[in-house]
Amino acid sequence: MIRVMKEAEKPVLAMDLGGTKIIAAIISSKVIAKEYQLTLADEGPQSVIRRILSTIDHLLGLRNLDPSQLDSISIAAAGAIDSEKGLVTSSPNLPGWCDIPLRDTVGGKYGVNTFLINDASAAALGEHHFGVGKGINNLIMLTVGTGIGGGIIIDDRLYPGPSGSAGEIGHMTIDVNGPECNCGNIGCLEMLASGTAVAKEAIRRLSQGERSSLTEIVEGKIENITAETVSLAAQNGDSLALEVISKAATYLGIGLVNLVNIFNPEMIIIGGGLAKMGDLLLEPARRVVRERAFQLSARLVRIVPSQLGDDAAVFGAAIFARQQK
Asked: CA–CA separation, 42 vs 238, rounded Å?
């Protein structure tokens, strides 16, 4: 059992706000209630915030808790986060989110201490304390899903950077002639190796007349292709799906080479939805690291899947709240 805090301590309500889904949990010495919601990010910030508040209300109702019985609320959110000011300053996968005062909006309604942290940084904390990164002093976490985020642990501590926005690994430039990213840059890792990128590449190739079992899986509606359907087809031996994943994995590997050469980490943890592909994604990426990174650093680093899966950022958000005491 994962013990985030002591039995006698008040629970934390922890939340992971991503581009696709919202995961929230009330955590004491164990998870005592949990809720999933779709983010529906295209509806805009105010709609998403209403969904966040209704999720919190529902969780509190499940356990018949008053907000005053919480220790705190801690939100892990996708994007560039100013933790000191409690702002989501920008978020490529949350359209319209620019300097949104999420911490104070939530804290103001419930009257409890509220904290805000980047979701991938929270995931790094979660894996470092409770997951595959436990006992590892220097590690990097990548969350590879709708987008790509990152969290950095140096000398056993989260490295947030002076403005709290360190670890935007998905927005390192990989291809100067690549596709335009939602962040406004060109050729970001996120546009080449995320779940969104995998789906777009499969759709592009099918639109050009290539054949694949993907067409049957989505009953001819290729616009409904997702990274999950591409993974399913690949596991059944579909050559187009395998090539699409191999291409994304190669780009991911190039990004990892940069991280290995710059940080010389002991471990790189891959989480998020694409990590569920396992070695279909990770083995080609590892091969690129072996071929391209400095050999001393490449021999040291272990590139492994997340142990906590979708719960990493929720547990990390709870830890972040406890660390603010």
From this structure: 32
